[in-house]
Design a protein that fits this description.
13 strands; four-stranded mixed β-sheet; seven-stranded antiparallel β-sheet; 3 helices; about 15% helix; alpha+beta; about 190 residues
């Protein structure tokens, strides 16, 4: 069940215990992969990709391949007392429709989400790809996810990807940042081989 709080933050009612967690809520002894703005708990079968902006060489998203699904996540700075997910959903809806796709809003396990059919241009015939847009407003941050592959339509795969999304820890940091700015991501430091 989602909890649309009166202050405009959109998050599952149990977010502070079931995730996605704020750095202050996470168990400090768990062996997270540190990517700067987010930490990811390693798990069997999880493959991690960093998405880099060509011009700036800045990491703009983290791609997680898991359970025949893809999950792209981005952490953003957010105001302390307001959420970004409602406004972001409206922007995504407009973008998908402008690209000739279809989109519907529905209530999912993480709260309000968008299920979209997005055109993928392959040669002259555009094919449609299914994607789920999920988002959770946390304390001073907003975590956005895009689920593709099996997790967009298969309930069992979806549950595994939702669990993966909820296992993410957002590290907002204390530095002042304008709302909607991407919280900086970095390459993980390679753990020393045993």
């Amino acid at each position: 069940m989602s909890d649309e709080l009166e202050n405009g933050k959109s998050a599952p009612a149990d977010r502070a215990t079931a995730g996605p967690l704020d750095e202050t809520e996470a168990n400090p002894v768990r062996p997270y992969i540190d990517l700067g703005g987010i930490k990811v708990l390693p798990r069997e079968g999880l493959n991690l990709r960093l998405e880099v902006e060509e011009q700036t060489k800045r990491i703009v998203a983290v791609g997680l391949d898991y359970s025949d699904s893809t999950l792209q996540v981005q952490p953003f700075a957010a105001p302390r007392n307001a959420g970004l997910w409602e406004e972001t959903r409206a922007q995504i809806r407009d973008q998908v429709r402008q690209q000739g796709g279809r989109v519907e809003e529905r209530e999912g396990p993480l709260g309000a989400e968008l299920l979209a059919e997005v055109p993928v241009v392959a040669g002259s015939d555009a094919q449609m790809r299914l994607a789920r847009f999920v988002g959770v407003d946390g304390p001073r941050w907003f975590l956005r996810g895009v689920i593709g592959g099996a997790g967009a339509s298969d309930p069992a795969a979806a549950a595994q990807v939702e669990d993966l999304f909820r296992s993410i820890v957002v590290v907002r940091g204390g530095a002042p940042m304008p709302p909607r700015d991407l919280i900086p991501l970095k390459m993980p430091s390679t753990p020393a081989s045993a």
